[in-house]
Amino acid sequence: MKITDVKLRFAKHYLFVQVYTDAGIVGLGEAGNWGYLQATAAAIEKFADYLIGKDPHNIEAFWHDACRDAYWRGGVVLMSALAGVEMALWDIKGKDLGVPVYKLLGGKVRDSVKCYANGWFAGAKTPEEFAEKAKIAVENGFSGLKWDPFGKAYLNIDPKSLNDALDCVAAVKDAVGDKVHLIIEGHGRFNVPTAVRIGNALEKFGILWFEEPIPPDDKKGIAWVRSKISTPVSGGERLYSRFEYADYLRMECADFWQPDVSHAGGIMEVRKIASMAEAHYIPVCPHNPSGPVANAATLQLAACTPNFYLLETMSSD
Asked: What's the CA gap between 203 and 157, in Å, rounded?
């Protein structure tokens, strides 16, 4: 079997990759990188020059050749492009062999996948409205609720804004009790002392994790925040390979890892990242506010990854 063509499809803020073969099998992938899809598309077009005429089953060879030939290694553009193509190659392999991708990665270790909701709060402004939306999300079967209650605060947060955020968390906690996990998103926008202040204030709510409390480029800073608060810390959606996660591991940055299949080099790269975490008893909860193809690919990983814990899902999609 040989690759004959690579085509790109844009839909809203999604970029889909179609890899065609001479056997009539078409593989489908999704490249992330919202807001910079044209740059990602240009990288995929460069990969197409390499791919045409190659055997689509040789996924590792493609991945390593693509990285070796990129002088400016890593980064969101290259790794998102690589992820979209790699995903499509796994789709071809599964279709050609007649099995789901999770069977090619060792087989399933669970029969169902627990999901937490993002976007469940759409339209809510007051604590009472958040509480009502939370009840609906719980009724829909989600195992956790994630949101960012901090308004427009950046780097610092004033006392009123912090109290408003805590009132929102309290209202949701009162509404759903212990039925689901509560997860607080920081979007990587606070400075170190503010993140510590917020993390300690969240302790009384039993939050599952405080996500990206400070900008993700400062791994030492994230580790320092984690050492100063009792609320667990998560992160990793803006890390793009196992090589970056190696630093995350050495510095003990997070209690939960969140690689994204559409950013971090694709299915096998996330599987390797998860294996690194598994060796240190760290749960993996993939970042996944993405389109349907990335969601399908992440479900394959969730099926076969022993230390998978929760999958992010956009409840409004």
From this structure: 18
Give pairs for 41-47: CB < 8 Å, separation 24+.
Answer: 41/8, 41/10, 41/15, 41/81, 43/77, 43/78, 43/80, 43/81, 43/82, 44/6, 44/8, 44/17, 44/81, 44/84, 44/85, 45/6, 45/8, 47/6, 47/81, 47/82, 47/85
> Which residues are 146's β-sheet partners?
183
- According to DSSP, the residues that pair with 147 across neighbouring strands are 184
- Dihedral of the CA atoms 182, 187, 188, 191 (nearest 10)? -80
pTM of the model: 0.96
Q: Would you name the residues annotated as active-site residues? A: 187, 287
pLDDT digits (tens, 9 = 90+) for 32-89: 877 889 999 999 999 999 999 999 999 999 999 998 877 777 889 999 999 999 999 9
Q: Are 303 and 312 in contact (CB under 8 A)?
A: no
